[in-house]
């Protein structure tokens, strides 16, 4: 009887054999940082490392990060000696990542559901994909809406690049997506302003064996503020 329920549990949830690397670049993020980190650290899927790169903040960001590092050994805080941009921070996070799968989260965004990692990694594993794309939940003026994109479909890398560049995934950002770490051995972010994700994402998708697009949403893109990565003027 025990083996029956054990088998059901293993097949019903994400197997915790895939290690996830969560990369969060921060810069003067003291207002939203707690919400972001709690939504990550309280996930039901616990086999992950959290790499937070502080881009030489001058507020309480670093102090908040240090307190989380002391209370949870999954948290790795990297302190940069000068401000070099979020793309540089993500590149640094990639170089340090030890997980099988990598995902990016901006410090003013957060995860709505505590089982988001668990559900996404199960899809990632079951579909044997190199890249999993999820739709955004967008929070603006206190209301949350869900992006409408292609759902539950495996697509080729060529089609994924075309759909991405045509903005059929509704965003050019790399957050809210899950990548096989082997896919990130070469692509890197280039600091060219607001669209630094485009070259990185297009290159990742072109290198993928296959891409899976799901309708499982959980990543909240917080659009009620203007962060370092979302300037008021583009």
Walk me through this protein's architecture.
This protein is an alpha/beta fold and 234 residues long. Helices cover 32% and strands 22% of the residues. The protein is built from seven helices and twelve strands. It has helices spanning 2-12, 33-41, 61-71, 86-96, 116-126, 157-165, 196-207, and strands spanning 20-26, 48-54, 75-79, 101-104, 110-111, 131-133, 136-140, 143-146, 153-155, 177-180, 211-213, 219-222. It has an eight-stranded mixed β-sheet, sandwiched between helices. The chain has a four-stranded mixed β-sheet with strand order 5-12-7-8. Helix 6 runs antiparallel to helix 7. The longest helix has 12 residues, at 196-207. It is globular.
Helix and strand topology:
Elements (H helix, E strand, L loop, with lengths): L1 H11 L7 E7 L6 H9 L6 E7 L6 H11 L3 E5 L6 H11 L4 E4 L5 E2 L4 H11 L4 E3 L2 E5 L2 E4 L6 E3 L1 H9 L11 E4 L15 H12 L3 E3 L5 E4 L12
Parallel strand pairs: 1-2, 1-4, 2-3, 6-11, 7-12
Antiparallel strand pairs: 4-10, 5-12, 6-10, 7-8, 9-11
Helix pairs in contact: 6-7
- Summarize the amount of helix as a percent range: 25-40%
Number of strands: 12
Q: Which class best fits the helix and strand makeup?
A: alpha/beta
Percent in strands:
15-25%
Mean pLDDT: 88
Number of helices: 7
Order of helices and strands: HEHEHEHEEHEEEEHEHEE
Shape by Cα distribution: globular
């Amino acid at each position: 009887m025990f083996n029956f329920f054990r088998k059901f549990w293993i097949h019903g949830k994400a197997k915790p054999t895939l290690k996830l690397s969560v990369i969060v670049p921060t810069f003067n993020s003291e207002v939203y940082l707690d919400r972001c980190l709690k939504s990550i650290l309280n996930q039901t899927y616990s086999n992950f490392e959290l790499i937070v790169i502080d881009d030489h903040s001058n507020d309480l960001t670093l102090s908040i990060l240090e307190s989380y590092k002391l209370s949870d050994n999954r948290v790795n805080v990297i302190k940069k000696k000068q401000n070099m941009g979020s793309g540089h921070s993500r590149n640094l996070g990639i170089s340090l990542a030890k997980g099988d799968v990598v995902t990016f989260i901006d410090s003013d965004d957060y995860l709505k559901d505590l089982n988001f990692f668990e559900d996404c990694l199960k899809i990632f594993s079951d579909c044997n994909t190199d890249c999993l794309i999820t739709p955004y939940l967008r929070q603006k003026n206190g209301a949350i809406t869900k992006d409408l994109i292609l759902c539950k479909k495996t697509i080729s890398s060529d089609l994924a690049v075309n759909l991405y560049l045509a903005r059929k995934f509704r965003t050019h950002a790399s957050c809210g997506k899950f990548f096989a770490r082997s896919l990130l051995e070469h692509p890197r972010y280039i600091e060219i302003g607001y669209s630094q994700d485009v070259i990185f994402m297009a290159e990742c998708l072109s290198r993928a064996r296959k891409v899976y697009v799901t309708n499982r949403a959980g990543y909240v893109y917080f659009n009620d503020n203007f962060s370092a990565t979302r300037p008021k003027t583009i």
